[in-house]
Amino acid sequence: MALYVQKFGGTSVGSIERIGVVADKVKSFRDQGHDVVVVVSAMSGETNRLLALASEISKKPTPRELDALVSTGEQVTIALLSMALNERGCPAKSYTGGQIKILTDSAFTKARIQHIDVDSIRSDLKTGKVVVVAGFQGVDPEGNITTLGRGGSDTTGVALAAALSADECQIYTDVDGVYTTDPRVEPRARRLDKITFDEMLEMASQGSKVLQIRSVEFAGKYNVPLRVLSSFTEGRGTLISLEDEDPMEQPVISGIAFNRDEAKITVLGVPDIPGVASRILGPVSAANIEVDMIVQNIASDKTTDFTFTVHRNDYDKVLKVVEQVAEDLGAREVKGDNTICKVSIVGVGMRSHAGVASKMFDTLAAESINIQMISTSEIKVAVVIAEKYLELAVRSLHSAFGLDSEPTEE
Amino acid sequence: MALYVQKFGGTSVGSIERIGVVADKVKSFRDQGHDVVVVVSAMSGETNRLLALASEISKKPTPRELDALVSTGEQVTIALLSMALNERGCPAKSYTGGQIKILTDSAFTKARIQHIDVDSIRSDLKTGKVVVVAGFQGVDPEGNITTLGRGGSDTTGVALAAALSADECQIYTDVDGVYTTDPRVEPRARRLDKITFDEMLEMASQGSKVLQIRSVEFAGKYNVPLRVLSSFTEGRGTLISLEDEDPMEQPVISGIAFNRDEAKITVLGVPDIPGVASRILGPVSAANIEVDMIVQNIASDKTTDFTFTVHRNDYDKVLKVVEQVAEDLGAREVKGDNTICKVSIVGVGMRSHAGVASKMFDTLAAESINIQMISTSEIKVAVVIAEKYLELAVRSLHSAFGLDSEPTEE
């Protein structure tokens, strides 16, 4: 008998019929004797409908009122799902973020959870009820309704699982797990039975959009086993947890992540003096542009070359900012390229295996793919290459690191 | 400088455009220096949309969850109206029933208000804010969301006005006040400048649907001056308050109310023994049928005739119930008629004027209208007549009691 927190997203509860499917699924867990806490998002389309109403009223709606407005979306779903469960003879009770007391700070539209009061959930579970909680929302110390920002329902699920010391937080979504890479690029990609928090974080930040990064961070921090499953098909999904104790069990590489929407900017001939990096990146971040990779070459001739990448949408904006800065700095030239992409290999196994990076470079070289930038972490090697080589790079790496083989069934 | 509670119903906030009109109206009061607390309903159609979702899930949805669901309707409106006010430079803050703590009992879908915590409203008003409160909803001592039942937003408005000792509770609706009778029946009907709580209660219970009876009772009990106005046109509306101290100021009759949807049932030849009335009406009320007028004639021959009226929709159902009862009682016969109507004259002035009832009967006799039943209260005389005479009766009484004349402007 376990305690599960199960989170269902907007498409999983997008219609009365689908809410019924979710109710059946939850009931089947309950019937097996498990305790179940369900976290739901707004029905798909509802949040956008509400935001559209607000934008008809104001270009910059009051954030406090925006949260009061948007939070009704999840409230509708918790009530409907609880009704559907009760209708199936499975006693259920709904809670808004304010009712269960998901305490957050007062940063409207992007609040962070500070504490969850689980007493009422525990006593409901004891009486055999399924508890249905509105995701994405909370309440600040003054009782104002807050929201956690888009995708925040995953965070609600993980935070609840942590507060309740749940056995597993199950995130139901429209994919049936985490894959070695995107199956649309490499048809031989396979679902991973398990992956570590760290790997999942690297996969997510490298462009694999299965889970919100924040919820994975949270799960890792509180060691909440996270399982990604499909709400439409049966299956065991992918378990995201701490790494196995026996490093021999770890595959060297778990997956290949990639990101198409990149652009790079290089400032050539920058004087090699302290503070140059911040003098270049300060104005970029002041312009609200997020920087991804940063590379600075070893100085020669008392000047250096400084390169970084940004989201492709910010390319024109960042060029303007940097050209001004380069002039001020007396740099030689600014170059940019918005036809690049990033490909990363991710795996905790690479810690104990030398030569992973060089195997990656060899593989790309064998396909005559030129590497423009390299960035590494303990469990990741990322390279920037021309966008036209993306599929070729992903497929050849997928094969070179032995990911094409059949998954081992546990 | 006064404190107004202003309540706007579903049609008044039925679109973003109309919410803008309401915001303009509220702001103009605020700009005059008045304190304003606004109570709003769900946008028209929204409550029915939510109820339809629930009925797709269950024929008998869990009442607690129904309230959690339906209460989102008003929450959307308070957020949108507050945004619209802020957008106009009129600082505003929204509160759900749970946030402001409108404490109710736990009778889901038909809860009653027990207490309102007005501290946060007062401190918001002090800082110059307009306070926007969700009507129709509250929270029980356990923190469950409750609703007051249909039309409950009027009650919220009156209860808030009472708790705040407001100078006036203004109910904005789609009519511009209370009329001497329904203008669709008598085009010479005129708007009343004022009317007493008691008269309004009789008008409402006799079929005039401007306000919910419960909110009028509430206003009378706490002596909250109530004003009915149109949210679409300018005007002073009708003030509902305690009666003037000088009875000479009171018109004899304030209005003519009527109700088409009536049916009557007569049990003839009932044994005249104690307990007969309850033996007839007990099963009727057990069948959940509401009884309106009840008349029992003086006994002759040790038997009596017993007549009562019900809503026309209940006619077939009540006949079946009563025929069984009549057989058990040994009554002679059961007769029914579902082509009747009720017409009432209402006015506090009739207390001090003899002959009002006889003037009514004379007027009807002059038109050869046969009176089938009579029922009186201190400030009302109601008669049951054949439905075909309804318009004729209303018009002749309207004229006979001098209601056709022009309203006296104050």
**Contiguous helical run count of chain A:** 13
Shape annotation of chain A: globular
Pick out the low-confidence regions of chain A. Answer: none
N→C terminal distance of chain A: 21 Å
The CATH homologous superfamily name of the largest domain in chain A equals Acetylglutamate kinase-like
The CATH topology of the largest domain in chain A is Carbamate kinase
Percent strand of chain A equals 25-35%
Short descriptors:
homodimer, 410 residues, alpha/beta, Carbamate kinase, VC0802-like, 8-stranded mixed β-sheet, 13 helices, globular, amino-acid biosynthesis (chains A, B), lysine biosynthesis (chains A, B), aspartate kinase activity (chains A, B)
Architecture blueprint of SSEs:
The structure is a homodimer of 410-residue chains.
Chain A: E1 3-8, H1 16-31, E2 35-40, H2 46-57, H3 63-70, H4 72-87, E3 92-95, H5 97-100, E4 102-104, E5 113-116, H6 119-126, E6 130-134, E7 137-139, E8 145-147, H7 152-164, E9 168-173, E10 194-196, H8 197-205, H9 213-221, E11 226-230, E12 238-241, E13 255-271, H10 276-286, E14 291-296, E15 303-311, H11 315-329, E16 333-346, H12 356-366, E17 373-377, E18 380-386, H13 390-400
Parallel strand pairs in A: 1-2, 1-9, 2-6, 3-6, 9-11, 10-12
Antiparallel strand pairs in A: 4-5, 7-8, 11-12, 13-15, 13-16, 14-15, 16-18, 17-18
Protein name (chains A, B): Aspartokinase
Pfam family, one (chains A, B): ACT_9
Keywords (chains A, B): Amino-acid biosynthesis, ATP-binding, Kinase, Lysine biosynthesis, Nucleotide-binding, Transferase
